[in-house]
Amino acid sequence: MKVLVLGGDGYLGWPTAMHLSEQGHQVTAVDNYLRRNLSRDENVEALYPTPDLVERAAIWKQHTGKDIGVRIGNLCDWDFLAGVFAEAGPECVIHYAEQPSAPYSMLNRETATLTLQNNLNATANVIFAVKEFCPTAHIIKLGTMGEYGTPNIDIEEGWLDIEHNGRKERFLYPRAAGSLYHTTKVQDTDLLWFYVRTWGLCITDLMQGPVYGIHTDESRHSESLLPFFNYDELFGTVLNRFIVQAVVGYPLTVYGKGGQTRGYLNIRDTLQCVRLALENPAAQGELRIMNQFTETLSVNDLAELVRDAGTATGLDVRIKPVENPRKELEEHYYNPRHSKFSELGLQPTLLTREILVEMLETVSRYADNIDTGKILGKNATWAK
Amino acid sequence: MKVLVLGGDGYLGWPTAMHLSEQGHQVTAVDNYLRRNLSRDENVEALYPTPDLVERAAIWKQHTGKDIGVRIGNLCDWDFLAGVFAEAGPECVIHYAEQPSAPYSMLNRETATLTLQNNLNATANVIFAVKEFCPTAHIIKLGTMGEYGTPNIDIEEGWLDIEHNGRKERFLYPRAAGSLYHTTKVQDTDLLWFYVRTWGLCITDLMQGPVYGIHTDESRHSESLLPFFNYDELFGTVLNRFIVQAVVGYPLTVYGKGGQTRGYLNIRDTLQCVRLALENPAAQGELRIMNQFTETLSVNDLAELVRDAGTATGLDVRIKPVENPRKELEEHYYNPRHSKFSELGLQPTLLTREILVEMLETVSRYADNIDTGKILGKNATWAK
Description:
The first copy, chain A, is an alpha/beta fold.
């Protein structure tokens, strides 16, 4: 199948491009290096250097003989986007191309404006390009479980049947996100849902939880094929931060009570989910929403798991609660469904000691690169 | 009170500016003439010429001795907006400043992009400016009843209490708008709700139905003070179209079955509602949402009312169903609440024969200006 991977340089975009290329699809990866540039500008670069998209496509070709097409440009620039669509003639468009950091979106007015404009305009342009160039193509859009927030009722998969004063209606599940970044994903969903109803597009919107891990089947050829590993307050995730803290002998800093619970998944399962969505497309005129995670864990759970794995590898790991720099509930109900991908055949890779030990060992090899000043950073007060 | 009226040149903005000036408030009206320029570009100008904002403020001053400050510029331009806020020091910000036409937002990719960028960036900038310059100021934001769409259950005022699997939560009432313009208002609400939770802003979001009428107490001084009257497919409303059709002897063209039902209000009641909201502000940290209309009417109801009033003034008015150019339900359940403004003391002006006769007489005086080619126009297929 002809597949466009928008945001193909990203943490998920590049592994997805390799995975679909490996599966025999004709992949074109598109990126404008926004995330690379922002993390350089903010002085929070990844743990190890990552070759750029053109270089990685060449390394991939060298090891596998397979081509991944590369186009560098901005999806907010219609002329560029139209050229890419006209040339690639995609049957499936995987849209990861957004400013992906919640803390970055909350730094100041400029970063908020960049996030809002970039994410909304990119999504609108993707919709317009599909309508114009390939109206039956399947759009697989990366949303986030963060769109739902942490409501006091069960989180369904995208939709909620409501009975009110004796009458019934099915609505988009009401959303209440915790950052501007997450709010732009809610606004993306509004836009997708409107144009599905108006133009009958075919869209899968993935409500994905936080992803961990860097190794995938396709990265075995070379460490140069690994995606970004950020451990800073802006582009890192809590698990990456804990891994780095364990390696350098810092306490694992738990924000507040540590009861913040989310649905996590391994990067291998992201690839599996996207492939399952691609192989089992939504119907024409359907906005299919699937919750994409494999297990719910609290921050305290994560800290305990890292301590356990660290101890197994001979590290002395301590856990230290600190004041929470974010505006979020530290204890809350959290019961999201995630049965649709199981029904499509997802085989989950859970967060075992073995997986964590592999992550600790990889990070240890790059221990000399760790800048401990970046772990919490000057931006820890982002949501105040 | 120091009041900014953003979009102060508009159909509602200018009458609001006069009304609050009359009430003794210190009003600054801000506009970039976007709507004026778009209707000129699309060749669908209003029924009679309307002096620009600077001229109207001078006419107002001449008749009343009162000053309305005028600033011409674009709210999407931060430097301009920051200057306005720094100078005006508003205690209340009334935000009408958006591309206001649903059909225009659906014409093509360029008009969709303009609507999305203009409306979202203006709203975001207003939020950022209030946070930076006047964090306790009351934002009164014009939303639309169209955010809700036409669900099969009762429409509450902004929020919905949901019981699900034995647990309870209060959510923003789920929204499903019928045009891109209306969808940008949904996205505005997402943004307002996020920043109310994050920064504790004080916001009233008005879910307003279609407004009719041009005469207000303040326009009695001079017809030059009347707001725009558009009767075209892009910037007109169904009632204006019917009035013009009745005056020129065309049949009133009812789209499809004519059961499309909405909550309408007289422009005098818009002014009353905005004043009531201003005098009874939301609490700090509250997103107060109020449904702003006085009566629900179907398109068939409107056609019958115009026929009745037309007959009373000696016109021969026929009604003619035509194929619906819009994608919308032509028969549907519609039961929206609207008790909050009644509780604040709203005295409704309903759509009586007398009101319609006054509109017919005003339009008749400008009958020579009517361009019948504009009534339905080349754009009647906008939602196909």
